[in-house]
Amino acid sequence: MKPLANIRDVSKRFASATAVDDFSLSIEAGEMLALLRSNGAGKTTLIRMIVGLIRTDDGEIARAFATGGERPRGVLGYLPEKRGL
């Protein structure tokens, strides 16, 4: 069965700060996942890349729920802690 999301060698940098550095993970359908680290470790940045809100600098995220690099709609929900209005 194809993974729901396959994250390979993903990195994201903001100016001189590296938020996510060479991260890989495969998420299978039906799995539960928790991201646990200290503040500033890149958890929110990783989630934003998975749902398609921001692009990776390096690596690739293949999603079974979106095609052609499109942002997934109606399949995946994302509720950030702080709303950017």
Strands, helices and their partners?
Layout: E1 5-14, E2 17-27, H1 43-51, E3 58-63
Antiparallel strand pairs: 1-2, 1-3
* Portion of residues within helices: 10-25%
Low-confidence stretches: none
The secondary-structure element order is: EEHE
Judged by helices, strands and strand pairing, the structural class is mainly beta
Largest sheet: 3 strands, antiparallel
Number of strands: 3
Distance from N terminus to C terminus (CA atoms, Å) equals 39 Å
Rounded average pLDDT: 83
Report strand %.
25-35%
Radius of gyration: 13 Å
How would the global form be characterised? globular
Number of helices: 1
Strand order of the largest sheet: 2-1-3
Brief characterization of the structure:
The chain has a three-stranded antiparallel sheet with strand order 2-1-3, with helices on one face. The N and C termini lie far apart (39 Å). The protein has one helix spanning 43-51; strands at 5-14, 17-27, 58-63.
